[in-house]
From TrEMBL:
Annotated organism of origin: Gossypium mustelinum (Cotton)
InterPro entries: LRR_dom_sf, LRR_N_plant-typ
Top-level taxonomic group: Eukaryota
Regions annotated as coiled coil: none
The keyword Repeat appears for this protein: yes
Domain Leucine-rich repeat-containing N-terminal plant-type: 2-33
Name of protein: Leucine-rich repeat-containing N-terminal plant-type domain-containing protein
Key words of the record: Leucine-rich repeat, Repeat, Signal
Length: 86
């Protein structure tokens, strides 16, 4: 996903986000549909910092992104505007 590499995760909540894994539906903080599509990222109040990666635009079925009460900064990537289900 590339999203993890843009975030600082001092509490290790994204520790099992392994980009080599064929199934992100097994990762913490990820919600998937019945057919295995990523539809949500939910990591509120987890002490994350950094920026939201442009690669979030690759998650074409995403419906929810919950990152409130973290320390993210920077601009919202323009790619997020292409996510019609968000």
């Amino acid at each position: 996903m590339g999203i993890k590499s843009f975030l600082v995760d001092p509490n290790g909540v994204l520790e099992n986000w392994d980009e080599a894994s064929p199934d992100p539906c097994t990762w913490s903080m990820v919600t998937c549909s019945a057919d295995g599509q990523v539809i949500g990222l939910g990591a509120p109040s987890q002490g994350l910092s950094g920026v939201l990666a442009p690669s979030i635009g690759n998650l074409t079925n995403i419906q929810t992104v919950l990152l409130q009460d973290n320390n993210t900064s920077g601009n919202i990537p323009s790619e997020i505007g292409k996510l019609s289900k968000l």
